[in-house]
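Exercise 3.2. Students should predict the tertiary structure of the chain below and write it as structure tokens, then compare their answer with the key that follows.

Predict this chain's 3D structure.
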Amino acid sequence: MTIQFFMFLTATAFFIMSIAWFLERKTSRSGYIDAVWAINVGLLSLIAIFYVGATFRSTILALIISFWSFRLSSYLWKRGSIKDDPRYEALKTQWGKNASLQLFIFLQIQAFCAIILSCSLLLSAQKHTIDFLDILAAIIIIIALMGEALADKQLNDFRNMGIRNGVCNNGLWKYSRHPNYFFEFLFWCGIALSAINLNEGSPISILAFAAPIMMYLLLRYASGIPPLEAYMLQTRGEVFAEYQQTTSPFFPLPPKESKR
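Answer key:
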């Protein structure tokens, strides 16, 4: 990757997230932000993949990331048109008078994260052969895409039931409080694994694992679970507190008995 290409990728990422900021300012709908971010990751990844060249491998990777981006962005866009994202609303309340500037900076950090994700696909596209790890990666990616879509559907079905102050604890949500986040993390594990080159022994390919590591840290400890669960505790109270006691926060695990 040349410095010129990296600068182009960076400028594109920052520009798209600036659009997300402008859209939120004009509509007061924070729910659109993550949809734009998914589009950003998809576009950057396609640029990175075909920077390597148009090959059979790059075409498969392009189809995978295009499907990921379209499914996630369309789901988030539809949800964002109905309601705000409680995580961003909590942050804006916390930022107070500086909310506009702080949100802009926050979204540019997300742009940088999108660059890291796209670089993992670039590393995978640079691989010239198909080996056992690619087959394993494909299985993981398929499971992740299906699992995240199922988790989103189960949550959407629960919301459509109109249960006030309830908590979705059916299906995948019985084993993880955030199965959609887990499968998102798993998807990037699959992408990173596909970049590992056993035949050529390229040590730089290990850098692709920066993508799932970053996603795990963000979702588990930063912009994902902490602000969302703070909102859920505030709005669902004891119901969600009990759910926290019985259900794993991230990795799907058998539920525990309530201590209450």
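Discussion points: The radius of gyration is 19 Å. Residues 1-126 form one domain.
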